[in-house]
Design a protein that fits this description.
Blueprint (H helix, E strand, L loop, with lengths): L15 H13 L12 H4 L37 H8 L6 E4 L6 H8 L3 E6 L2 H10 L7 E5 L5 H7 L5 E7 L4 H5 L25 H7 L2 H12 L4 H14 L5 H11 L10 H11 L2 H15 E11 L2 H15 L2 E2 L8 E2 L5 E3 L9 H6 L7 E7 L3
Parallel strand pairs: 1-2, 1-4, 2-3, 4-5
Antiparallel strand pairs: 5-9, 6-7, 8-9
This protein binds S-adenosylmethionine.
Length: 379
Amino acid sequence: MSLSVNHPYDFFRPSLAAWTMGLRRRLDNVLFLHLDLWPWHLAAGSSRKLTMNSESGRGDHGSREKNEPPVDHRFEHTTVLLREAVEFLQPAPGKLIVDATLGGAGHTHALLEAGANVLGFDQDEAALQAAQERCADYEDHFATVRANFRELEAVLQESGVGQVDGILADIGVSSFQLDTAERGFSFQQDGPLEMRMDQRSGITAADIVNTWSVEELQKLFVEYGEEPLARRAAMAIVRRREQRAFHRTLDLAEVLASALPRRGKTHPATRVFQALRIGVNDELGALKDLLDQAPRCLKPGGRLVLISFHSLEDRIVKHTLQRQSMQWQDRPEWPEPRPNPDYCMRVLTKKPVEPSEEEVSHNSRSRSARLRAAERIAS
Ligand SMILES: C[S@@+](CC[C@H](N)C(=O)[O-])C[C@H]1O[C@@H](n2cnc3c(N)ncnc32)[C@H](O)[C@@H]1O
């Protein structure tokens, strides 16, 4: 990966326009990633792997590939734990914060309003467009990257940005993704069995249900869906696909509904759909990679804020932060405790922060949100 950096990165420089120009130049030089920098690519003329279209204007910023469907601009998502996340990140003029899950830019907009610079990641084209439109007034302080956040460290290093003051990850899918039938996340609306957040690559939910063995499906439903009747669900899928392959969400939901009992208000397909979504997007693998890289990407005193939406994610966040914040390790066979080589963070939230009753009453999808925050210690 070759990268030519023209100027040393200096985010304390007084002119933020110069800051974004410098960042633009560095990111333009990262050849190996699909970077989506609006509106800079229109003028950049770089050789990076972007589909550039000089006539496309602001609305179409060029990284959509030929096989990707056009983006619907009505992006709706209610930001969760907004005040709490912003308070932990302490945005201020001159600070640079990475929003690893830009979505509709609800958190990012608040960070920009408080004067911070934001570098936003999202792997979904629709989210990037929505975010860029929403934050158009802050173009000198805001840059976006179309990439998986598991590439965070590589992007920061190769672009010359180096360490940042804060990292936010509001994990999972947006309401826009869930509610857009064509994205295939919902068992309540008919759509293609898709579920990819990044529609440029990777396997779809249809690939999984039509080709994996009973054992592989069962394992997926147990591990990522915590489905107690995982084998029954897997058998029903395999029996049905012997007659006809699955292509549509409602078709799969109906087969699951006839194989599994309804539990209270929860639709029988809920856990299997969750497992498929996590598997298709390797969500837990990406989260582990982010947590591993985050301390190296933060300056001493820099803050990490993570919002998760189910126990599988929150468990990973909790255990990783515990491991990174223990100064000493001890084992029965050791004569005395030893320094923990992974010690690099201070946990700021003894218990996860949950949304208030008021927030849940306005946005029922926030009810399962859990926020954990930590600070990089000086090394
Ligand atoms: C819950 S939404 C974020 C909402 C945003 N905080 C807001 O207030 O509008 C999560 C977003 O993260 C993106 N996302 C999820 N996992 C990702 C990953 N591994 N890399 C990059 N983006 C990811 C999704 O595409 C989605 O747009």
